[in-house]
Design brief:
heterotrimer; A alpha/beta (484); B alpha+beta (477); C mainly alpha (94); A: alpha/beta; 15 helices; globular; C: mainly alpha
Chain lengths: 484, 477, 94
């Protein structure tokens, strides 16, 4: 096994016993990136010198100084600020932006000794489900050439699946961690809203965004969550609540756990292969001792409409700061201020971002606020209540992540609505603020990964980890790697 | 047709916190451009605001001082528009859930007391500064001021004249100074005022079309601008024309208002609750804590000066008209215990020396209140004459020395000792027999002459009352 | 029709975006389509439902009134496309 193929758990053993150095491990990943990223395109930027310096620092650390991720190479979605390192958000408008600060989650990883290899490709400003709107590089699914890696954290998912790094941090606003995790055959978690700090995560939709980890197995994901989760005084929306050691939840056996199957998630439009993988997963859990119950999330059909009013509305306000005045791209030929604004923003933003800004601006505008933004916010309450009721009957919900496995580049091009509707299974977790995880469940006939989604009540990541761990143990696909 | 003026005022008060409302940058005035900024107040990608607790405390203080309702639940909102002094492209303010509502203050204008309602008070962040280049078509942006906390105070349209408006403005100003939550400096911009003004036929309930007045940076300018606009609207309406709803800037050089029409885009602010800031919940316990921190308010203090010190209302109003002056008075009073004398002295000799605003001047004044109190005490006890006291006071103003020290140095003690003076009195009467005769004959005016002589002999130190008594006795016998 | 071309132009102006003729036509069509879709929310009675602003009802996240270090002038201006070492510079508002 090459070093770059190790899981975090395996790597830590070798690093701590000095069988492997972080420098060796990091070089292994950097070489891997040099080898394959030409076609995977997971990385917008790679920071070789910085990474090796961090690796050497990790190698020099002794005893108590060694953090829980000491020497582990990771990648970071280019939506998270990294001090002194370009942070583009996949957009021309921030192509040369170098933040003088790091995101809290990045600081926490570095404090625990992680080695940051580079920034990964993504849909521009996290708006998309395929990463095809990235202004720089569009990541490819490592399992099949010409297929999307998913989005918006496509690069993060691909980098982990292709073993260019051992783990990654992404962000999830409507499924942007879980869906690419499913499409790329890796583990991806969206924590409860407020569980992980958003400071330094470039905002798309502030009331929906969360940072979360990608990894190759559930244990690694728990290790990452141990480091990044927890209250941050710099984020008013982060919650003051003790965080458990998530690795303690990794127990085999499902006795006493009720798994809910939401009927609305299994209808027309769901690829039969995906349905088969999810139902097989439920059966395996039942074998392990879980009780399966049927539940209903009656307003599932409305969640796409709710999301595509609230998220663009918040985004239209969050992206107003990209005006060329203090930082970012500015059209230097503009003669008046208003022309400078319009020309900078029009040249700097791609079509999808513009579309959502226009939609969001409209939804907040005078005369339309009540009918659109307010109405959507009210239905959001109804959707949240659906989950509350469902969780009275079960501990965890099992469902698909995406309606199908990965598709070809450009296949879902023309109609935005068609693209938006494919988010139907992942969106409501963000609306309700509940945690969700995607764990590899199986493969399609074409050899493309299919993930199984688990959703739980607020702050019940432990239960998700336990169930995901059991799926992983019984599904038997977590050791498979794409052939590159 | 008799027309009635309707005025509402919007005040923006910059709060005297050490740090900004949502970040830890200093709010200190006068720093080099863009040296008090950080990623948060610069609105860089990914940053988040965290509310300064002191801002809430100051808002509660003002709410209590204006008899307002402190809302148990309030929320921040985003006011979205594009401008170079607004880094995030929105101002964090409060919209439908402000922290304070439904207060009032009492004013006196044209001799009549009146209550002016306060619709609401809310918290928001200040914008930066734009400096326009005179030659090149560019503007320079300094964001030090961005994120400074503001309280916006919106009055009911209860004012009916420019005098009432200025009285309201001054009262709010006084209150903010008493609470010590705002510097109240109109020139520096820590206290700003915009006015909404309309006219309607007397008796009509419906409000007329209103104009908004901006750029009035002193009480005098507010008065002048309002008076100008009242005249302008009156002339239009009496001519049968309509007032156009617009924003007008006061031009203090030309003494007129100028339309901003065409320069301003119709704004749709698209207010919505700010998702990065969670609600502010205020319970009775917190309100009680803040209530304890309230100083005595101007109206109460004025009343106390009348009842406790027996001062006339006129004096009390002047002395309590500035918090620093009222504090000064009370500290001085502890040394001399002669309120009326002290008050008189302050209102004449002391205030005569003032340059600029009372508050800051007192803070820098060389004469500490205890020294002034000591001076008045000497005067009260007859140790020095009024004339000497004035001299001593001028030296105190210049040097900051204590009165007793000055008196000793310059040998200015007033002599009241009867024995000491009797001898001299006898001498003088003996030396001026003809005047003595004339006095005895009825020319009582000559008392002045005799006392003057004594003054000369004692170099002005003689106590005039004692002198009077002694001469009267001497000349009677 | 849920939204007209004029309305899209108006909204584009509010958002400080330029749309050429082609973009305007396409964007209007797509937005109209999306707005027609989201109209399904009208099927639901939300009369007494409170809008969700925050995922949970937490409140009172405060910081103390203490001064922290600011960026240096150089750091603050470092990413600015046009600056003079002291201030950010923008074209004059006409």
């Amino acid at each position: 096994m090459y070093p770059y193929e190790l899981t975090i758990g395996q790597a830590l053993e070798k690093l701590n016993s000095k069988e492997l150095s972080s420098r060796e491990l990091t070089l292994s990943c950097l070489d891997r990136i040099a080898d394959i990223d030409g076609h995977i395109k997971a990385f917008i930027s790679v920071n070789r010198d910085y990474a090796l310096a961090m690796a050497d620092k990790a190698d020099a650390a002794k005893g108590d100084e060694r953090g829980v991720l000491c020497g582990i190479p990771v990648s970071i979605k280019d939506l998270l600020c990294t001090k002194g390192i370009a942070t583009t958000c996949g957009s021309k408008i921030l192509e040369n932006f170098i933040p003088p600060y790091s995101a809290t989650v990045v600081d926490r990883l570095e404090q625990e000794g992680a080695v940051i290899l580079g920034k990964t490709s993504m849909d521009e400003f996290a708006m998309g489900s395929t990463s095809e709107t990235c202004a720089f590089k569009v990541p490819e699914n490592p399992w099949r050439r010409g297929y999307v890696a998913g989005g918006s954290s496509g690069g993060s998912a691909a980098s982990v699946a292709a073993c260019e790094c051992l783990a990654s941090l992404g962000s999830d606003t409507g499924g942007s961690i879980r869906q690419p995790a499913s499409l790329c055959g890796v583990v991806g978690m969206k924590p409860t809203y407020g569980r992980v700090s958003r400071y330094g995560l470039v905002a798309y939709a502030s009331s929906l965004d969360q940072v979360g980890p990608f990894s190759r197995d559930v244990r690694d994901c728990a290790l990452m969550m141990n480091v990044i989760a927890g209250y941050d005084t710099k984020d008013s929306t982060s919650v003051q609540r003790a965080k458990p050691d998530y690795t303690q939840s990794l127990i085999t056996g499902m006795k006493g756990v009720k798994i809910g199957i939401p009927k609305e998630y299994f209808g027309a439009g769901l690829d039969p292969e995906v349905e088969a993988v999810v139902r097989k997963g439920a059966a395996l859990l039942q074998e392990a001792g879980a009780e399966i119950v049927d539940v209903s999330l009656p307003h599932t059909d409305y969640c796409v409409a709710v999301y595509y009013l609230i998220a663009p509305a918040e985004a239209s306000s969050n992206l107003a700061r990209y005006d060329g005045v203090l930082y970012g791209y500015r059209d230097m030929t503009a003669e008046s201020l208003i022309d400078m604004y319009k020309e900078s923003r029009s040249a700097g933003f791609g079509a999808e971002v513009k579309r959502r800004i226009l939609l969001g601006t409209y939804a907040l505008s005078s005369g339309y606020y009540d009918a659109y933004y307010k109405k959507a916010s009210q239905v959001r309450t109804i959707i949240t209540n659906d989950f509350k009721k469902a969780f009275e009957l079960c501990d965890v919900l099992i469902s698909p992540v995406a309606p199908s496995p990965a598709w070809k580049f450009g296949e879902k091009g023309d109609d935005p609505l068609e693209m938006y509707l494919s988010d139907i299974f992942s969106i409501s977790a963000n609306l309700a603020g509940i945690p969700g995880i995607s764990v590899p469940g199986g493969f399609s006939r074409e050899g493309l990964p299919i993930g199984i989604q688990l959703q739980g009540p607020h702050f019940k990541e432990e239960v998700l980890f336990r169930v995901a761990y059991n799926i992983e143990k019984s599904a038997g696909v977590s050791d498979k790697r794409p052939v590159l | 047709m008799k027309l009635e003026t309707v005025i509402g005022l919007e005040i923006h008060a910059q709060l005297k916190t050490r740090s900004k409302i949502f970040c830890g940058c200093s709010t200190a005035f006068g720093a080099a451009p863009n040296t008090h900024t950080c990623p948060i107040c610069l609105g860089m990608p990914g940053v988040l605001p965290v509310l300064n607790r002191k801002v809430v405390e100051f808002a509660i203080k003002l709410g209590l001082a204006t008899g307002s309702t402190i809302k148990p639940f309030s929320q921040f909102a985003r006011k979205n528009y594009f401008y170079p002094d607004l880094p995030k492209g929105y101002q964090t303010s409060q919209f439908d859930l402000p922290i304070i509502e439904h207060g009032f203050i009492e004013i006196e204008a044209d001799g009549i007391e009146k209550k002016i309602g306060i619709t609401r008070i809310h918290m928001e962040e200040d914008a930066g500064k734009l400096i326009h280049d005179e030659h090149e078509p560019v503007s320079f942006v300094d964001l030090n001021r961005t994120g400074t906390p503001l309280l916006e105070i919106v009055s009911e349209p209860d004012m009916r004249s420019s005098e009432e408006a200025v009285a309201y403005l001054k009262k709010i100003h006084l209150l903010l100074r008493y609470l010590d939550i705002c510097d109240g400096n109109m020139q520096e911009g820590s206290f700003r005022c915009d006015a909404n003004i309309s006219m309607r036929p007397l008796g009509q309930e419906q409000l007329g079309i209103r104009t908004e007045l901006k750029n009035m940076n002193s009480f005098r300018n507010v008065q002048a601008a309002l008076e100008f606009e009242i005249r302008r609207q009156r002339d239009l309406l009496l001519d049968g024309e309509k007032v156009i709803q617009e924003t007008l800037l006061w031009n203090p050089d030309k003494n007129r208002t100028e339309s901003m029409r065409g320069k301003e885009d119709a704004h749709d602010y698209r207010y919505f609750p700010c998702p990065d800031l969670i609600p502010v919940v205020i319970d009775e316990a917190w309100i009680a804590e803040v209530r304890k921190l309230l100083p005595e308010l101007p109206d109460e203090r004025q009343k106390r000066f009348v009842t406790d010190f027996g001062l006339p209302e006129y004096d009390a109003r002047i002395l309590t008209g500035t918090r620093e002056l009222a504090d000064y008075f009370e500290r001085a009073l502890q040394v001399c215990n002669a309120p009326k004398k002290l008050s008189n002295w302050i209102m004449t000799e002391f205030l005569r020396e003032i340059k600029g605003d009372v508050g800051p001047w007192i803070a820098c004044c060389k004469v500490v209140p205890e020294s002034l109190g000591a001076l008045i005490d000497l005067l009260e006890k007859g140790k020095i004459s009024g004339k000497i006291a004035k001299t001593v006071f001028l030296v105190m103003m210049e040097t900051g020395k204590a009165p007793l020290d000055i008196i000793k140095e310059q040998n200015l003690d007033q002599v009241s000792d009867h024995d000491e003076l009797s001898a001299l009195v006898k001498e003088i009467v003996a030396a001026h027999p003809s005047q003595a005769e004339e006095f005895k004959g009825g020319k009582t005016k000559l008392m002045g002459f005799f006392v003057g002589q004594l003054m000369q002999k004692t170099k002005g130190k003689a106590n005039p009352q004692v002198a009077n008594e002694l001469f009267t006795k001497e000349l009677a016998g | 029709m849920k939204i007209t071309r004029e309305e899209v132009e108006h909204v584009a102006n509010l958002a400080r975006l330029n749309l050429n003729r082609q973009e305007l036509v396409k964007m209007t069509e797509q937005l109209d389509n999306l707005l027609s879709y989201v109209a399904k929310l009208d099927e639901l009675d939300t009369k007494d439902i409170k809008p969700t602003t925050h995922a949970f009802s937490i409140s009172n996240a405060f910081r103390d009134d203490t001064v922290q270090d600011s960026l240096t002038q150089k750091e603050a201006l470092a990413n600015c496309p046009k600056q003079n070492g002291e201030c950010f510079i923008v074209p004059r508002i006409i």
